[in-house]
From TrEMBL:
Transposase IS4-like domain span: 128-355
Keywords: DNA recombination, DNA-binding, Transposition
NCBIfam families on file: transpos_IS4_1
Signal peptide: none
InterPro entries in the cross-refs: DUF4372, RNaseH-like_sf, Transpos_IS4, Transposase_11
Protein name: IS4 family transposase
Pfam family, one: DUF4372
Amino acid sequence: MGKNREINFVGQPILKQIMEIATALDIKSIIREKQSDRYYKSFGSMTQLVTMLFGILSRCDSMTEVCEGLRGMGGKLNHLGLRKSPAKSTASDGLRNRDSGFFESVYFSLVKHYQSFLSDSRTFGLTFKEVLLVDSTTIRLFSDIMKGVGRNPKGDGKKKGGLKVHMLIDAVQSVGRFVKITEAKVHDKNFLRGLELVPHSVVVFDRAYNYYLMFARWTEKQVYFVTRMKKNAVYTVNQTLRTHYRKKGQAKVLRDEIVGLSYHPEDENGRKITKDTLEVTLRRVCYQDEKNRYYEFLTNNMDITAEEVTFLYKKRWTIELLFKKMKQNFQLNYFYGENTNAIYTQVWCTLIAQLLLTVLQKKAQVKKAFSVVATLVRIHLISMLDVYQLLKSENRQYNAHDGPPETGQLALFLSSTGGGIF
């Protein structure tokens, strides 16, 4: 019977190894800058960050589960820099009162630190400085702290609240470069006002972000975009560049036109200055895919081909996958606090957890899906295993034995005799 040395024991739990990815940057300087430890003696910013990441990575449903789970770790807390498990009341007070801006700064500092590491060498064969993707996802709340969307319920029912996470990512990365959390009722196009884009970059988004005034401003600055056209859009065709007939089962560009769309001038707050209208000249591309689905795209780039316009819009699916990862692999159905600051803090910590696992996945250089990585981390979160070897391991069976294990003895606990999975 030979020992299975594929996964080695180490002196730190997996949670500590993941935290080392975060502590690669100087978090203490962020604490000083944000003064996030002011008025806190026993529950510091790092303690709260570790506590939140433990709850998020282990998918706890409440702060009670988080604190009880940490209390059950016993002698492993010292590896995480904790002297003891925080009391539920202390952790809840910190979640309610400590400014979520600290966790926001930690997230963006991590994004900046690992930006080059997470970048892909793919350029998609295009000549743009950056290809950026914009979208938002709505998270439903069980209270009306933040105003939600949708119709009011009938009778005595109470309308639920909701928040919206707006995100801008680089097409060659898988983390949010610019993130804004708002009430769900906030219109998507308001997010575009806060973006600072460099000339000759291209930003891709869905038709919910149609904002003709911003399109005109971007055109003046040579910032390009690709989006879908609204079905009720009113436009005039100035020139037809090409046209083709539809053919069933064949993906092809059907029309390529130069069109004009009207908009009202606005001030910095989005209020109309005058009733007079201006016109922005854009390009309209009509496309049919191989499944006979029909699309209408808008862009202000007159140089690329119509096929490149459709290709750029297909890249928008990357950000949809990012939101899918966040909602399926982390606990966003239940929140640990009931005020706005607590909700913001949990969302920022969820984004931090997703970023840390993304870095971990790339460092391990494995082809396992992100969901598999998140599951392995959750199951072995406090196990003292080498996390990289755990992810790389492809062993699907126990070591061979001369005979069956002893009656009543689980194979899981046979590692001391050389027959365990470790």
